[in-house]
Amino acid sequence: MSPTLIGKRPHRVYFQNPGQAVQTADGPYVQEWHDCAPPALWMRVEPATARALEQISAGAVLGIATHLLTGPYHPQVAAKTRALFNGRTLEVTHVQNPDSLNREMVLVAVEVLTEPGATPKAS
Questions:
Q1: Rounded to whole angstroms, how far apart are CA atoms 104 and 82?
Q2: CA angle at residue 72 from 59 to 101, to 5 degrees?
Q3: Distance CA 86, CA 12 (A)
Q4: Structural domain includes residue 84
Q5: Strands (E), 49-102
Q6: Which DSSP category does 116 fall into?
Q7: Rounded to 5 degrees, what are φ and ψ at 107?
Q8: For position 61, what pLDDT does the model report?
Q9: What's the structural domain count of the chain?
């Protein structure tokens, strides 16, 4: 599989991994997030279709997915990573490394709906 050309990756996506849960002054715990290094990559972001998910999963069940992200391989991106894209938060649920060459990754993600004013920001 040849890597997706830069011209086919028009979206700037920021990646963060979870840190420790920290207790706020009010009492509840809040999840901390830390930027990956580098934090942003140019990716192709597209809606997840049944056909595309079938091609990625080779018959395995992936659950609910709303988006597919394709771009250069990043060693810190995993199933626990979140992607920030155009004010939206996507939770990565599956990472595919085609041909295990560490050149490109295809991510299966679910959009996380947040309360108004609670949208996370890329650092």
A1: 18
A2: 65
A3: 8
A4: yes
A5: 67-72, 82-85, 88-96
A6: T
A7: -110, 135
A8: 46
A9: 1
Cα distances from 112 to residues 38, 72, 84, 96, 98, in angstroms, run 23, 23, 10, 21, 26
Q: b/e map of 13-25 (b: 16 or more CB within 10 Å)?
A: bbbbbeeeeeeee
Residue 69 pLDDT: 95
Tell me the pTM: 0.79
Domain that holds residue 66: 7-112
What is the amino acid identity at position 123? S
pLDDT along the chain (123 residues), means of 10: 77 96 88 95 88 58 76 96 94 92 94 65 60
Question: Can you give the CATH number for the domain in which 11 is found?
Answer: 2.40.10.270
Q: Is residue 123 part of a domain?
A: no
Structure tokens at 43: 């990716």
In a domain, 2, yes or no: no
> Cα(118)–Cα(8) distance, rounded to whole angstroms?
31
CA pair distance 84, 15, nearest whole angstrom:
6
